[in-house]
Specification:
disordered N terminus, about 700 residues, 8-stranded mixed β-sheet
Length: about 700
């Protein structure tokens, strides 16, 4: 359509040619659709020949259209063309995307030489597609321009700093320990300035804690642990480890202090002393360890359990999150307490009660755990094994003993003792069968060892005598004495110095020779030397523990070991008597009552469980208070043994002369036979009283004395 001065004149357009792909031309469906459309009714359509390598579709406007204004006015508004400015770079970027527009009945034509792209098609479709296509061209052009004009800066940064910046709202791409910032110059400079400001605020500090806690942190994921400790409490901080060094990094100085406080509260390390290391190799321990790891370390490591690690060879060390460490500590403590081996002795009042228990051994023992070993030692029934089972066994024995009644019948009638002894088996069997009772005939024995100055003395069933003396250990007359020494065997103070002065310099020379040869003596161990000028044969130097309330159980165990090794060393050297002081109660500051309790307990365990050459064990001290406690504890530990307290010497009996006029006259009727004025005959015979068959039934009966 052309426009002049007066009105528009319609001219016939030239032939339109369209290149089509061979594949589209070969598709008959495409050809059928075009033929059916209105275009085939208004225009002359010329299809290319079949097999043409470059098929061209032609659309010819018939001559009648140029002279028919109404037709053109109908045809022209049906189509629309929109022009865009574009370069080849933008075109290459969007060419894959424009397929979606072509599928919507819109054609895209390019004139890259002129820097133009056309959107052609029916007016309605072009109008619908135009906004989307325009946005695509504009956004792509803007992005490419930004890329061409962009600036790249590299900011060095540690992973911890990067994480903290991310938590602060700065999210950039991280490559190793750097951040790359790309964009327009003013954008890059702004971001870089902000990053440097944040870097200046970030503070770091090396974490100083126990080596076991550091080991836990090294083995644990930094991100997961930091999340548990800090992120959940809105603390912008992070833990990072490098070559066994733990560093705490925070957003600012204030946040760093808050993170340190949270770290001390959230992490902890505890140690549990293990007296019996064999428990840590038991199946029960492995099962407990597996259970704790499964329940507390599922998905992430929150607690670390170390068995006898370096620096704590006698401990189980638990380190990690405080809440889980407390749970593990309780479980491990209960396990060690319930499964540690102990020995509990239940005293039995009399031999007949012991015999009664022995007769019913199967009934009582059958109710106990098979893990408990029950033995009879002296007048005690001793149970040994895991603590929890031993305590149950001891309670069972005590309850059984409390249900028994025991009484003593004194046989003082002439001939009765002989009769009972002759018929003992019959009486014992009858009492057991008919009355469910036990009978035991017992005869008192006379002890042959009565020390003159013992404050307390007890004789054990095996004949070994334990005595308490107040006196000077340096002058005590026994085969061997025990010296409370230090690890270097330098006898510079207390009892050790007094023994050295009494023994002479040779004692110190012998000790120095032992140190040069074997090194220092460990607490709990003992060595033996000659006695020098002392009245004893040898001196045993034992090293007791230095008292520490924090390591109470450990100190108690070492003290018992010191006494046990001293007794063993005395027996190995065939000594028959030993004197023991209150080891560790002086310079080493072991509480006196507790010290003596463990010394006597060690003696008790030794004499009840080991064969020994020792026949006398003396507990000696110069202090009245120490001697008193020795007596009390010895009585308590050894129960109802036979006690021998030296009797006082009888008062001297002077001869009493009686005047002849006051003497009673008894007529003698034969050798060793007297007759009273009442007519009673008294005979004096030399024989055993139990052989007497005469009973006194009346005042006139004869009386026979046996000697």
């Amino acid at each position: 359509m052309q426009y002049g001065n007066k009105e528009a004149c319609v001219g016939r357009p030239s032939t339109l040619e369209f290149s089509i792909s061979p594949s589209s031309w070969a598709d008959k469906k495409v050809k059928d659709i075009i033929n059916k459309k209105e275009i085939s009714q208004q225009y002359e359509v010329i299809w290319p020949e079949e097999g043409c390598p470059c098929p061209i579709f032609k659309l010819i406007f018939p001559p009648r259209m140029s002279s028919n204004r109404s037709i053109m006015t109908k045809v022209v508004p049906m189509y629309k063309i929109v022009q865009y400015k574009i370069n080849h770079v933008v075109w290459e970027a969007i060419r894959e995307t424009i397929t979606s527009f072509m599928n919507n009945g819109v054609q895209v034509k390019t004139d890259l030489a002129a820097g133009k792209v056309y959107l052609v098609g029916k007016s309605k479709r072009v109008t619908e597609v135009n906004p989307t296509f325009r946005n695509l061209v504009e956004e792509t052009t803007r992005r490419i321009e930004k890329k061409n004009q962009s600036l790249t800066e590299v900011v060095p940064m540690s992973p911890a700093q990067y994480q903290i910046m991310c938590m602060s709202g700065l999210e950039k791409q991280m490559m190793e320990q750097t951040i790359r910032i790309s964009g327009l110059r003013y954008e890059v400079l702004t971001a870089k300035r902000e990053l440097y400001n944040v870097q200046q605020q970030i503070k770091s500090k090396c974490f100083k804690g126990s080596p076991h806690l550091v080991q836990f942190l090294v083995l644990t994921s930094d991100e997961k642990l930091s999340c548990l400790l800090f992120a959940q409490h809105n603390i912008n901080a992070l833990l990072e480890t490098d070559d066994n060094v733990v560093k705490l990094t925070a957003y600012s100085e204030e946040v760093l202090k808050e993170a340190e406080k949270q770290l001390k509260q959230g992490l902890t390390c505890v140690s549990i002393f293990v007296e019996e290391k064999g428990l840590l190799g038991s199946p029960e321990w492995r099962s407990l360890l597996s259970h704790m790891n499964t329940t507390l370390n599922a998905g992430k490591c929150t607690v670390l359990i170390l068995k006898c690690p370096p620096g704590a060879q006698n401990d189980v060390v638990i380190t990690g999150l405080t809440s889980n460490v407390q749970k593990c500590h309780q479980k491990v403590s209960d396990f060690l307490k319930n499964n540690s081996t102990i020995r509990v002795g239940v005293p039995v009042k009399s031999k007949v009660m012991m015999q009664f228990i022995e007769d019913r051994r199967k009934d009582i023992w059958g109710k106990m755990s098979k893990k408990v070993n029950v033995t009879k030692i002296g007048d005690r029934i001793c149970s040994s094994g895991p603590r929890v089972h031993v305590q149950e066994a001891a309670l069972l024995i005590k309850n059984f003993l409390s249900s028994l009644h025991c009484d003593t019948l004194l046989i003082d009638k002439p001939g009765a003792k002989t009769f009972c002894v002759m018929n003992e088996k019959v009486h014992v069997a009858a009492a057991k069968e008919e009355f469910n009772c036990a009978i035991h005939l017992q005869e008192a024995t006379i002890k042959d060892f009565v020390p003159g100055d013992a404050k307390y003395q007890v004789t054990l069933p095996n004949g070994l005598i334990i005595s308490v003396y107040k006196g000077d250990l340096c002058r005590h007359n026994v085969d061997v004495i025990v010296n409370a020494a230090n690890e270097d065997l330098q006898h510079m103070g207390g009892l050790a110095n007094a023994i050295l002065k009494a023994a002479g310099h040779k004692l110190q020379d012998d000790c120095d020779r032992i140190i040069r040869k074997n090194g220092r003596v460990s607490p709990g161990d003992s060595v033996i030397t000659d006695a020098g000028n002392l009245p004893c044969k040898q001196v045993i130097h034992t090293v007791g523990p230095r008292w520490s309330a924090r390591l109470r159980s450990f100190c108690e165990r070492l003290l018992r070991r010191a006494i046990t090794t001293s007794l063993q060393l005395a027996a190995e050297n065939n000594h028959r008597s030993i004197a023991i002081p209150a080891v560790s109660s002086g310079i080493f500051a072991f509480p006196l009552k507790l010290c003596i309790e463990h010394i006597v307990e060690a003696v008790r365990i030794y004499v009840e469980n080991q064969q020994t050459t020792l026949r006398r064990i003396h507990l000696v001290d110069t202090s009245e208070e120490t001697v008193r406690i020795f007596c009390e504890v010895t009585k308590d530990k050894f129960g109802n043994q036979t006690n021998i307290i030296p009797p006082k010497a009888p008062a001297i009996q002077h001869d009493i002369r009686v005047e002849d006029s006051k003497k009673i006259q008894v007529p003698v009727i034969g050798d060793n036979v007297l007759k009273t004025k009442e007519g009673m005959i008294i005979k004096l015979l030399q024989k055993n009283i139990e052989d007497c068959t005469v009973l006194l039934t009346s005042a006139l009966a004869n009386i026979v004395f046996f000697f």
